[in-house]
Hints:
The chain is mostly helical. Helix content is 85%, strand content 0%.
Amino acid sequence: MEFGLVAIFQKMGWEAKSVAMILLAMSVWTIYITIDRVLLFRATRKQSIDFLPLVTQCLKSNKLREAVELAKKYRKSHLARVIAAGLQEMQSESDDGIEGGLMLDAVRRSMDRESILVSTELKKGISSLATIGTTAPFIGLFGTVYGIIHAFQAMATSGSGGLASVSAGIAEALITTAFGLFVAIPAVWIFNVFTGRVDYFVLEMNNSSSEMVDFFIKKQNVPVRGQGVGAHAGR
Length: 235
């Protein structure tokens, strides 16, 4: 018997081939999610780097409407979306005549909602990598167990014994376990990398939300809860 991968695959039964095809589909999905998220994260980072200096100048010049319009041009930037949500909410509350702490609470909630939406979009598909990483080895092991059972059944049917009579079947069976590990290990590694990247994006959005609230407090001269206006203005 030839022990090349192609030769072994050709001699596999339909059950083992089905397991191999499932693992192959998992591998293709892992590659797709990896490419998709890498491209998205790069675009998110690049647009955020381009957006921050421009919006900072708008805010320093008190050009809030221009800042909102600028944020709309950088829709892939996680920071632009959060800041735009806060600015739009502030404009809406100001038009309705709501000022002070109530406006700040509304602005904070709006940015929190947008942060949740953005983080959910950034995590899209990443959880499937964890599923692949945990299930692929077991799927491969299932193929191995079935293959070994099939090999011993063939040995019992033929009436021959010894390692030589079952070595081909065992080699065929172990291929699925190796394939399962080959699929699972990169999926787990990529999942951990992407999870860390998303956590960093979330941290940046939280920091930006806090800075925007501070900006609105200074702009509106809103007293901090439990303190007077004068106490805050002296910060």
